[in-house]
């Protein structure tokens, strides 16, 4: 474990806590894409079911349990508890266009053609694009509550921090995980536009608004 | 040395 990865994981953890806080305090999931959240459940379940048969560490185990359970809880909040505040008519990105290609990519690119390994590859590819319905929704509405932008910033920072972690591991351990690295670069690149507006507007105290 | 999946990463 190095500091980049630790802070990456903590940023990921923080993003989910921010999202939960936003939903609970505003009693609304306005501005949050249900499709993106459903894709995250898919990602976590596909990747972290190994917690039942592969022991890594207590840290690793607890994080996996937290990510699976919190993502399912968020779906519950959106679909049941605060259902009236969710507007499916602006959450129109076709998620199946993401899932299909990720299945195909996972069948081609994996470290071993076994069910758990293909599932792992699939989750890595799907995670890299799972934010697209959310970013698409943001693009459509052209604005976002500040708390939602903090959620997105923490979520984007998480994979971005994994990049120096991979560089560090390459030099310290001599090992590269090309599937994770390439997907991680794509994932981070998707946030570039968002981060530009976040740094130039939100962190200067202005509202997150896209130019018309 | 080489390429491998980092099993300890989340």
Automatic annotation (TrEMBL), chain A:
<keyword id="KW-0675">Receptor</keyword>
<dbReference type="Pfam" id="PF00810">
    <property type="entry name" value="ER_lumen_recept"/>
</dbReference>
<keyword id="KW-0812">Transmembrane</keyword>
<dbReference type="InterPro" id="IPR000133">
    <property type="entry name" value="ER_ret_rcpt"/>
</dbReference>
<dbReference type="GO" id="GO:0015031">
    <property type="term" value="P:protein transport"/>
</dbReference>
<keyword id="KW-0472">Membrane</keyword>
<dbReference type="GO" id="GO:0006621">
    <property type="term" value="P:protein retention in ER lumen"/>
</dbReference>
<dbReference type="GO" id="GO:0005789">
    <property type="term" value="C:endoplasmic reticulum membrane"/>
</dbReference>
<protein>
    <recommendedName>
        <fullName>ER lumen protein-retaining receptor</fullName>
    </recommendedName>
</protein>
<keyword id="KW-1133">Transmembrane helix</keyword>
<feature type="transmembrane region" description="Helical">
    <location>
        <begin position="179"/>
        <end position="199"/>
    </location>
</feature>
<keyword id="KW-0813">Transport</keyword>
<feature type="transmembrane region" description="Helical">
    <location>
        <begin position="52"/>
        <end position="76"/>
    </location>
</feature>
<keyword id="KW-0653">Protein transport</keyword>
<dbReference type="GO" id="GO:0046923">
    <property type="term" value="F:ER retention sequence binding"/>
</dbReference>
<keyword id="KW-0931">ER-Golgi transport</keyword>
<comment type="similarity">
    <text>Belongs to the ERD2 family.</text>
</comment>
<keyword id="KW-0256">Endoplasmic reticulum</keyword>
<dbReference type="GO" id="GO:0016192">
    <property type="term" value="P:vesicle-mediated transport"/>
</dbReference>
<feature type="transmembrane region" description="Helical">
    <location>
        <begin position="97"/>
        <end position="113"/>
    </location>
</feature>
């Amino acid at each position: 474990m190095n500091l980049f990865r630790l802070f990456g994981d903590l940023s990921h953890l923080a993003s989910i806590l921010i999202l939960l806080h936003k939903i609970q305090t505003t009693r609304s999931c306005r501005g949050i894409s249900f499709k993106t959240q459903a894709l995250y459940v898919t990602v976590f379940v596909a990747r972290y079911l190994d917690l039942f048969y592969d022991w890594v560490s207590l840290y690793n185990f607890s994080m996996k349990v937290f990510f699976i359970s919190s993502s399912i809880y968020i779906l519950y909040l959106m679909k049941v508890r605060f259902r009236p505040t969710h507007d499916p008519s602006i959450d129109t990105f076709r998620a199946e266009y993401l899932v299909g290609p990720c299945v195909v990519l996972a069948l081609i690119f994996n470290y071993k053609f076994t069910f758990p390994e293909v599932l792992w590859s699939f989750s890595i590819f799907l995670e890299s694009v799972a934010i697209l319905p959310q970013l698409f929704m943001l693009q459509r509405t052209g604005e976002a509550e500040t708390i939602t932008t903090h959620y997105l910033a923490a979520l984007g920072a998480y994979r971005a921090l994994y990049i120096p972690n991979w560089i560090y591991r390459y030099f310290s351990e001599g090992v590269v995980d090309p599937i994770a690295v390439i997907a991680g670069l794509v994932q981070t690149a998707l946030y570039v536009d968002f981060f530009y507006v976040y740094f130039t507007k939100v962190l200067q105290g202005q509202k997150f608004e896209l130019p018309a | 040395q080489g390429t491998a999946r980092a099993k300890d990463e989340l």
